[in-house]
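Model: You mentioned two targets. I'll fold them one after the other.
Researcher: Yes, keep them separate.
Model: Target one:
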Amino acid sequence: MPIFNGGCLCGQVRIAVRGEPKRVGICHCTDCRQESGSAFTYFAVWPAEQFETRGETKEHSGRSFCSRCGSRVFSANAGDAEIKLGCLYDAPTSLAPTYELWVKRRETWLSPITGAEQFDEDRS
């Protein structure tokens, strides 16, 4: 069973997830763009019981971030843990997006991910 380890920029928050994720995606929505400071967010969802975290986090709108450096690393709700894959230590990973959300907000210079399901807004 694979284990993926990661953490925040300063190292105060550490995360680990076991096994393969339920799904891997990219989101181009305004919230994800603003919270990441980038054109999209790359994330994966695991069952909460496969997720562990250490260190002090703060939360805003369900999004947990390091209380020291502000790095956004995960959201945990409704039995799932959504991990920002940019916080994983080993890159590149084998985790390829199978879908894209809010493609109507995707930058025109970004091409759709080949083979990934495309959604104008959220998944139906």
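Model: Target two:
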Amino acid sequence: MTNVERTDPGATPSVEDLEAQERRLVLPRFTHDDAWALGSLLVELARERQAPVAVDIHRAGQQLFHAALPGSTPDNDAWIARKRRVVERYGCASYLVGARFRAKGTTFEASSRLDPDRYAAHGGSFPLHVEGAGVIGAVTVSGLPQIEDHRMVVEALERFLAQR
């Protein structure tokens, strides 16, 4: 959790808070088995909360994990693809990309010059950053308000790293 979220869980994290999350959530490695473990952890969190989400993990262009929970729809898969493309293009969380545009007084849609049918800087996709390798993929959740999608992924990554 960021400093803002520790004091006020409902607060919107700042760009600095989001950047700190990314610096903290770096993985020592990321294998197929790790994708299964992280994806299963996300599904478990979503089921505990009865969250109608879809979960996706991609590494180097390959889908390693996907689950669609009750209440999710094909639209969630489309959102996953759009948010994941933002991570792949910018190398950071989709929510952070949107926050950076908002901090400049604009929006991603107005200023990125990217097709909004293919890219969405909305919360829920987080880079899989591996020590010594950089960003190798993305873990994505779709189905909740964007800050909640983002927070679910961050919580899962924190738990995943604590188990390693």
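Researcher: Noted. Anything on target two?
Model: Residues 1-7 have pLDDT under 50 and may be disordered.
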